[in-house]
Design brief:
With about 110 residues, the chain is mainly beta. Helices cover about 15% and strands about 40% of the residues. The chain is built from two helices and seven strands; from the N terminus they run βαββββαββ. Strands 3-2-5-4 form a four-stranded mixed β-sheet. The longest helix is centred in the first third of the chain and has 10 residues.
Length: about 110
């Protein structure tokens, strides 16, 4: 479904130690806007109809209605450009603006 790279899973796991996130699971979502896809992630409670999965040891949820939009997405934590801050990167082949990373530059799924 969604692949969370090892680096992204480690970064998200750090946030699970926050008392405010205890008992919550990371949720991924996408909002379709006139400017393309806007990716959302945050800690939330599991709801009826949610899909509950795991990647690289990290549990995550998404609304069933979002499945087609998020299927095959890779979430990484890296620099977009050398010298920039690290941030979460969403590579989603369902996004109309998606450009496949150059060979050798794509994150490993391990």
């Amino acid at each position: 479904m969604i692949t969370i790279t090892k680096k992204a899973a480690e970064e998200i796991s750090l946030s699970t130690h926050n008392p405010e996130t205890q008992g919550l699971i990371i949720r991924f979502a996408v909002d379709q806007t006139d400017n393309g896809f806007q990716y959302l992630m945050g800690f939330d409670e599991r709801r009826d109809g949610d899909i509950h999965l795991e990647s690289n040891g990290l549990e995550y949820i998404l609304a069933y209605e979002q499945k087609a939009l998020l299927e095959g997405m890779v979430v990484d934590f890296d620099q977009i450009q050398v010298g920039e801050d690290y941030s979460f990167v969403f590579m989603n082949p369902n996004d109309p603006d998606y450009t496949e990373p150059e060979q050798g530059h794509a994150p490993t799924k391990a």
